[in-house]
Structures are given as C-alpha cells and as structure tokens.
Amino acid sequence: MTISKNDKPDSMNLIDITEPGSIPYVDIPTSNFGEILAASQDVSKKGWIIMTPAGPLVIGYKQIKNILRNPEWISLLSSFSMLDQMQESGPDLNKMLEQAQKIIPEVPSTIQMRPNVLSVEGEDHKRLRRLVNSSFTSGNTNRHRNFMRDHATNLLNDIKEKGEAEMVSEFCRPYPVPVICRILGVDDSDWKLFDEWADIIFSALDADVESVIPRLGEITRAQRELDSYVQDLILKRSAKPEDDLLSDLVQSHYNEDKLSHDELSAMVEAILLAGTDTTRNQLGATLAVLADHPDQYEALRQDPSLIAATVEESLRYISAVRTTGRLATKDQIIDGVFFPAGSTVLLGLHAGGLSEAESQGYEFNILRESGCPHLAFGSGAHHCLGASLARAELQEALSAFVEMVPAYELTSPITWKPLSMGIWGPSKLEIRILEDPNSKNISTLDETFGSTLKQPVSNSEITYSSEIDEWVREAAESRKAVRSSIPSLIRKPKFPPLGRLLITVLRFGRAYIGWKLKSKKNNPEIRNKLLYERLRKAAELQGPTYVKLAQLISAAEGVFPDALVAECKKCRDQVSPESWKKISKVLEQELGTDLQQIYDLDQTPIASASIAQVHEARLADGTNIVIKIQRPGIRGKVTNDLKVMAWVAPKLVGKIPVAALANPPALVELFAETICEELDFKLEVANLFEIERVLSASQKQEWEIPDPELNLVTEKIIVMSKVSGCSLGEAIITGIEPEQTSAIFRQMVEGLLEGAVIHGVFHGDFHAGNVFLSPSGEIGLVDFGITGRLEGERRLAFLRYVVGLMTGDVESQVVGIKDLGAFPADSDIGLIISEFQLERNNFDPLDLSEEEFIGEFRNLIKGLLAEGARIPKELMLFVKNFAYLSSVMQELDPEMDLLQEFLEVASSFFGKNGVRVATEIGFSLGADDVSDATFRRVAGIRDTVSTLTWKELGERRSSLLERMDRRSIKKIID
Predict the structure, then answer these.
(1) For 563-589, how does the pLDDT look when each residue is reduced to its tens digit (9 = 90+)?
(2) Which of 489, 552, 566, 888 has the greatest number of C-beta atoms within 10 Å?
(3) What's the CA gap between 597 and 617, in Å, rounded?
C-alpha cells in the first residue's frame, strides 16, 4: 500500500520503521546452517519483520512476496547502476576513473553501463523481459537435459572410481559452466576460458573486502576479456544464426523492437554469471542436506520420481540465495508498518520459505503431502528469468548422482562460505561412497557432522531484546519531549536572569583581577598559564554549562592558544568532585532499598566530569561495577545558564565575523539539546544500546560496551559493568606501539563515520577519558550522554558531504553542507565553488606572504558572511568529536602518516558500505574511487608531498598562527 504525502503516519496507528526500538532487535550469532534453522524458527515468533545489525529484515513469506511484487519497491541494483544518469550532485565519473587508474592501471579509461534485467525497472524492465522471455521457456531448457545428465555422469565417473571426493571442487564447481556454454552456443574448446573468467569475477563477491582490493586488476582484466569474447560471438551469431540461446536472443523481437548490441552483451554476461554460482552452491547444499538425511536419500533412490520434489524442498530448506534488498521509492505501509520513501530493507528469501512451512514443520522432508512454496527464485517483475534452467540443471545433476551413488557419508565437517555473503553454500564437502546404505554409523555421523540439522545456537543465545527495545522506544518519546522544550528554553529573553548573570560576572571578574594582581612579576608564558588556570577553575565553580564550554574550547586546537586548550582539557574528566555527603544523598534518594544490592562502594570517584562522577563498587554476585551519579542541583543551574547564553548569542551575530560563522544561536541550540538530554540518564542508557547495535554491525571489529543493570538505572543513576583496560589518556603516558595506534585510529574513525552517515547515530564524546584499551586490544567506550543523531534527509545530506570528501568531489561536499543548512537553500553551488576557489589544487598557503595570507583570509570570511554561511550544528558535533580523537592520536603517534590513513579508512568505508551508499545517493562507488584531493586542499599541501604526519601538520598550523598576530587579527575583523 502506498500513501500520499498528505497522510501523516504518526496520526495513524502505525509502526514507523525509522523510530528507535519500533521493531524487535535480533542479533543471531550463528556459525553454521543448523543454527540458522533453529534461529529462524525462533525468530519468526517475533513477527514478520525484525531489526538486525545489518538493518531491517523482512522474514514473513507473505510480506516478502508483497514487496517483491510491488513496482514501487525497486531492486538495489537498479537504484544505482545507471551512472550515466547521475544527478548533478553526483561525483565526476572521469575524476573517479582517473583515480582508479592511478591505483589499478588495468581499469579502463571509459566505462559504458549496459542495462540488463537485473538493473532496470518499470517500462525498461518490462521491455527487456518481453524480448527475452520466449528464449527461456522450459521447452528450450529441456532440449539440453541429456547433455546435463551426461556431463554430470562424466564428472561422477572419476569420483565413483575413487570412492571418495571433495564434492565442491570435483563436482559442484565444474558442473554448471559447460552447461551454460552449451546452451549459449560457446565452442566446447572455450569452456575452460569461461570457467576461469567466472571464477575470477566471482572472487569480487568475497566477504573479505580487504582481500578483494589487491585482485581488482585481475578481476578487471577477466571482465574485459569476457566482454570481448561475448561481443565477437554476438557478431558471429548475427551473421550466421545457429541452434542456441544466443541466436534466439539475437533474433528476439517484439513488434519491431529488438535487443541492442549492448543489451545482448549484458544479457549473455548476466546469464553466465547469475547462472553459475547459484547452481554450484545449491547443488552442494542439496548434497549436504541429503547426507544428513540418509533415510530420505534412500527413499529417493527407491523412487526417482521424487527428484523434482527434492530439488524444490532443497530450495526451500537450504536455499543458496539467502537475502536480497529492496528500496522504497514512495512511502509504503505493509501490515501496519510504515516505510518512508528511501527505506532500504533486506528480504529474507530463505527465512520466508521456512516460515511458510511452519504448519507442516521446518524440517527437510521430500515426502510432504503437499509441497511448500519458497522464494528462492524471487517473485514479481524480477522473478528469476532462468528458473526453469536452474531447476533442470539441479534435477539432472541430482538424478545422475542418485543413479551412481547407492549411499554416502560425510568424512569431515562441512565448511560453509561466510554467512554474510548473498550467495551461500558449502566451500568444502568431503564424502565417502558406500555400497551398502546400512554400513554407515548414523549415530556418530549425526553427532559429529550433522550441520544441516536443526541445532541450538552455540556459544551464546540469540540476542532477543524486548526489554531493551521497550527502553529505547520510551527513551525516543522522552527525547522528543526534551527537544520540543528546547525552543522555549533558548528563546531570547528580554532580560537575562540577573542573579545568574551577576554571579557569572563576579566569578570570572574575580579570577581576572586576582590574576592581574598576583602575576605581574611572572614572564608572559607563565602569566598566560596562570590566567587560563584561574578561568578554568571559575568555569568549574559555575557548573556544568561552563564546563561544557571549556570542553568545546579543548577541542579547538589551532583556534585558541595551546595553553588554554591544554588547561580546558582538564574539564573533560578531571573536574573537582562533589563531596561524598552530597553524592550519597542522591544515591539514597534514587535507589532507596535497592541500594542494598551494592557492596564495597568506594567513596572516592575514579572520574569526575561536568554532569556526574563515577564510583567503583560490586554486586552481590561479585560483579565489578561502576556507578555514575549525577551532581545534585544542576538542572536549575543549566536552565539559567542557557537563558544567559540565549540572551548573549544573538548579540554576537554580525559583530565578530568568526563568531557569526560559528553560528552562535545554533551552537546554543546544540548545547541545549545535548546537555538537557545528558541530564536524563535513562536516555543515556538508551543511547548506549543504540550505539552498541550500530557498532555490532561491523563483524570484524570488537568493542567493549558497559552492560547496565536496568533495575538500577534512574534519571540520575546508572549502575553498569566496568570497562576493562586503561583509558587512551593513560595510554598517552605509558605509550603504545605505532601499529596499534593506527589500528585504534582506523577503528574509531570507521565507527564514527559509519555511525553518522550509515546509521544516523554516533558517540558524540570521543575524548581520551571516554575511550579505553583492553589488554587484548579491544576498544571500550563509556559515557553515552552526548550522542549525535542524523535523521532522514539530514543523514543523507551528511552522507553526500562525506562521500564528496572521500572522493575529492567538491560539488558533492557543497551540496551536502548546503542541504544541512550551511548555505541558504537558493544558493548557487557553482558560484560558491568558483568564488571561494574550492577546487584549487596544488596550493600551499605557506607560500603566501603575511599580507597575502591575511588578505585571502579576510576575503574568505567576508564572502562567507555575504553568502549567509553558517556551520550546521550536526557538523559542529561531528568535528568536535573528530578533534578529540585527533588530539589523542597525535600524542600517541606524532609520526602517523595521515595521507595513508585517510586512504585506508576511506577505501575500507566504501568497501564495506558501497552498496548501501549507492542505494541511498544514487550512484555506485567503490574503494578505487577514493581520492586524497580534498584532504590535500584542507591540509594545504601540494601534490608533490607524499606523506603528512601529525607532527608536520602541527608545525604547519603553528606557522599559520604565527602570521596571525594581534595586528593581523584586527585587520581581519575590521
């Protein structure tokens, strides 16, 4: 069901898929197929849609079929394949190709995207299907059944003679390519070429993206050679048709319409690639499951008419195609669930087939009275074109096997391909042929090797989080209430709270006057340090709002004096603690009798910050815990401080250029949102759960997140497990190896990036006291009070900005930040790029004289102000977070090569998220599209510079700041 723009989903009784905790979250730690069966059966009780670390997963048969048949849900391939139809905001394809060729010389200098039935929608898709449907009938397929059977028999002869085999490499893998080649009309002598090309090209689907990148050159060559061969073959069949599928396709027509040369090439290559790997994997999976069901294999031997039913049951029970994806082009409602336009969902084709069989039992059973439907070939417009061919191949291969093999058993555990892959099956299947079915030791076999039989999930239970989901849902409502109160809280008052303003003036005035009187005899450097120390202490006395302000200053290295930044860093986790007398009262008021569950509570805090302080303790069972306790009476202070800021902020706009760009009112709004949410610790725990789910989506990275005791969490108290190891702040003192520093940096940047632009949720306070390093190298995170959120169009805008940064595409960057509100909506993108010379390459500002530098900087500030530029509040939080991380990394490893780290992080990001990014922004990107051009522009380094370390970057920053003395700053402001 599609709904119109005028319909408001929140006014209906609907579940919004984008709302936190709206659908059950499930994390399934399966390691083999048997565990998948048990998990699928269990998960189906949660409903027809669940949330997984990879995103929403539809597991209901009816709902999957509904989506597949709805033309307003399009395939992920069709959402980004047409690079020649990119929007104006897309990257420059020529630049992408140039960068790719620098990394991989074999990449072609031009790319021509060819439409095929997998990558087009609507009328284009209907047209292609009309033209080719007649070539894919069961009648055409059946003509080749004898060859299929003979080919399978030939492969099995050697296996039968040996009495044992590794079936994937000796039977399943070599079986389909000659069949496809014979059907297409490829010469028998060229089968090995096609086999080799298919293997190389399919290696690009390896779940380990990092291992694919070094093979991109080889993969590109294979694709080019295949394309050249296919085009030559098309020319031959166009001139002289033969009795084969390619000739049929060449002659296919509907009225006067025919397939173009490019469409023919795309179709042939799609047949080869799509029809090869699926058949290999499905055949292997079928043999694996029959090995675990010897009674049914014997029944099949006795009654070969069950071959077709066995293939269908195999497709339902252990389908090689486990999932596919769809994108909603319009708002959709399915059985009470609302999917906004742009929503991406995974469709559990395999899980849907299992759930449909629930009434008859999940188990593999070729003797069912009535067959159960499955979705292995999809449904709707994109129903598999080669379904009849695949069925025929599987039936004939299985028939040959049953004829020649009386019985067989596994000789080692089955090795399965990574479960994350879209096409899935055994990677190793070792069997021994038995002449007597009764000679196998079934009890030992089932106990040792039965990996296709349903079995409990090992290691840990499936993570069902109904309590957590409810917590996250309630927190989302509370967060909305907090945010709805912000406008009234920060509305500019006619008069500030005079009492609070007076106290503020007195405290900071006393700090300044005392410094003036007591530091006259000190040298300027010591005088400045003493001033900054006094100001920092005054901020701490003022309370959390001013401590937060000091924390912002601590993230602005290069903007404020280094000594001031260093002093403000103490406000991150070294704030003077409250007395135990005051803190214990908060504990007693919040926990009451539940306080009796806590033992050995240390009255000395291990950390103290603006909002709260943390104490160690243990539970009755001996579990080591920490207790985060809110400082008493801070809510009233925060409210008054925000009113003072709301009164002051508008007065700064237009008065000081740099302050105007910093967008003081937006800064106050961001400040108010974050600090008001921080005051409710229940929201912090919900943030923790959401970020933990985001981080768990990266299977290669390990994170340690505190485990809260929900019955001991209130608005002012969090009782949770203690994160192991030392903080990064402590690691700066003790030191760690450069290789480990690099790994930490990459993992944290990837976590920050993916959280922000892929999931729309990220930890917003990455300072050194909140990041821990365990003895085993695992990264731990604490303090989830500040959490960045990017929802809907704002997340997509930020995604476009980040993609532009990584690919060096200036236009995408400007469009992204404009959509975030950095420029007015009617701004001319081209004019902005031209006026501010944003595409200027190979430029070093250190080559300018002082007067030239100041002149350029002044013109930049004035130009930005004239354009109405403002720094978006989301970007403020992201940049502050990255500044925290950068300040730690440059102390841990000042010799880290930033150019190399940038390329590694960006390549990994596209490698893991390329399909998702392409789906959401409309064009395809990969690891070879990464460019360091933007990084060079920002750092101000020329193309000849091959490395840039933290140390060198700091020296460059200092050199620039030295030019901006007080006289120069005055010139800029004036």
Answers:
(1) 888 888 888 766 789 999 999 999 999
(2) 888
(3) 10
